[in-house]
Amino acid sequence: MDFYELIRTRESIRDYDPFRPVDRSTLERILDSGRLAPSAANRQPWTFILVSSPVMLEKVRACYHKQWFKDAPHILVVAGDADASWIRSYDGHNSIETDLAIAMDHIILAAENEGVGTCWIAAFDPTVLHRALDLSSHEKVFAITPLGYPHRGFAKKANKIRKELKDIVKYI
Q1: What's the average model confidence in pLDDT over 79-91?
Q2: Which terminus of the chain, N or C, has fewer Cβ atoms within 10 Å?
Q3: What is the DSSP string of 12-56?
């Protein structure tokens, strides 16, 4: 698919087929896209936790209570080590969220390219995830996304509602 068409047509999926898991080679291509993402000072402070086992899915699904989320055959947790990320010397800004956002965006676009649905979720309970995944205190869970195929017959929306370019760009 053309890259610009992919960006125009990608959307958050909230209708997963629980009986169609994504094959391992497709998942690895998607995850490798995150691995290849840029990060501040090339620190790569991320960990991609792919949850697919029924026992762990049950534990992780407790962090977000939407049925469509519970139907996805895989859940990806994008976490990072704030102690390993780059810190700007001028003001102490830690790049962890920026680095993880870039990796998550690469993953979501790669999934779309593979026909795999995603939905960037930030409204999860981090305490539940930390406990379920046995994460350390310095590991920050930035975002999660289900990974799975939409139900057959799922229809994408025709257009995204976005501001016009002229309303958000300043040429100086």
Answers
A1: 97
A2: C
A3: ----B-TT-PPPHHHHHHHHHHHHTS--GGG---EEEEEE-SHHH
